[in-house]
Amino acid sequence: MKLVSVIMPYFKKREYVLKSLNSIISQSYKNLEIIIIDDELSQESQDLMKKLSNLDQRIHTISNPSNLGAGLSRNNGILIAKGEYIAFCDCDDVWSSKKLEVQLKYMKSNYLNFTHTSYLIIDSNDKIIGRRKAKKIISYKNLVNSCDIGLSTVVIKKNLLKNNNLMFPKIETKEDYVLWLKISESGEKINGYDEYLSSWRKSENSLSSSISQKIKDGYKVYNTFLGYGVLKSLYCLLILSINFMLKKK
Fold first, then answer.
1. What is the pTM of this model?
2. How far is CA 26 from CA 20, 22, 100, 101, in A?
3. Which of 76, 78, 104, 203 could serve as a FRET partner for 4 with CA atoms 20 to 30 Å apart?
4. Going from the N-terminus, what domains does the chain have, and what CATH number goes with each?
5. Which of 35, 124, 50, 130 lies closest to 88, judged by CA?
């Protein structure tokens, strides 16, 4: 049974983190380590980290030297991860109890290095307000036009990141989108498993829910990180925005 390292950046998610963490601790797949990265760096978060680390011997907590944001926090977690596989879960998202067991079985039987799954969208009260189905195969062209990969659904072979020097970039939002694009651009297969194994919590006051921030960072994805020109970047951003609106219907 291969070790899985679960990476969880923490920043002001006190009301949800226990529910998220319990969904990981209770996984049917037991050989895992949970790395929580404190990016809040307050006295309250330090006290919380101590409490969380006592919940299960598989939990490890680290603190950033300064506030770095979710992407760079995940990079710090990946650097110390011991697992052959890396899984991501944000501190307000929730996994089904058999997520890792089902997903790893699918990966191993199909010789895959990167998978994601379908996921539910929930509100602050755990009410289901949407669903996103995972496409079995996403090409680089498809991914450029629409980000259809839920971060907390992803499981990836660690050596895929290490061997290609791939990491999350420094950007306010869409840091995961940039990494998925870079992985796809490198020629790696992006495979989806159509089963609802995760729930993404939509929080109205989060950065990921800020439309203006999404637009700014969407442009950076294409212009800064993919090296597209201004017109192509604006065109791609328009297509991305249209596809985002279509998914909300």
1. 0.94
2. 10, 6, 11, 12
3. 203
4. 4-203 (3.90.550.10)
5. 35
Quick check: 149 and 225 in contact, CB under 8 A?
no
Are 86 and 78 in contact, with CB atoms under 8 Å apart? yes
Return d(Cα 32, Cα 15) in angstroms, integer: 24
b/e 111-125 (16+ beta carbons within 10 angstroms → b): ebbbbbbbbbbbeee
Tokens of residue 21, six digits: 């963490």
Closest CA to 164 of 180, 151, 150, 176: 180
Secondary structure (DSSP) of 120-156: EEE-TT--EEEEEPPPSB--HHHHHH-----GGG-EE
- At which residue do the structure tokens 């989806």 appear? 192
**Per-residue pLDDT tens for 76-123?**
999 999 999 999 999 999 999 999 999 999 999 999 999 999 999 999
